[in-house]
Amino acid sequence: MAKVNKRLAVLVGCNYPNTQYELHGCINDVVAMKDVLVKRFGFDPTNIELLTDASAATGEGPSLMVLPTGENIKAALSKMVSQAEAGD
User: Fold this and answer.
1) What is the DSSP code string of 11-68?
2) Which InterPro entries does the UniProt entry name for this protein (predicted)?
3) What's this model's pTM, rounded to 2 decimal places?
4) Which residue has the higher pLDDT, 31 or 1?
């Protein structure tokens, strides 16, 4: 039986709420991209890490949400690389 390659992704969305650089739609974009990766390209949703600043704007969001700090982005990329195997 042939090995099935894993598909891994790190998606980062920053709206920079309550700042002079505030954007609109970046969080929606990464959520939509995750949906595309899962439904169209067959990614396992557990292999996609989302880093967003969503709760900073709304006070809501998953309790385990990871903020997109430089340190967290590097950690997510490092985790993705360590999980990858030849052919992924």
Assistant:
1) EEE---TTSTT--SSHHHHHHHHHHHHHHTT---GGGEEEEE-HHHHHS-S-TT-B--
2) Metacaspase, Pept_C14_caspase
3) 0.82
4) 31
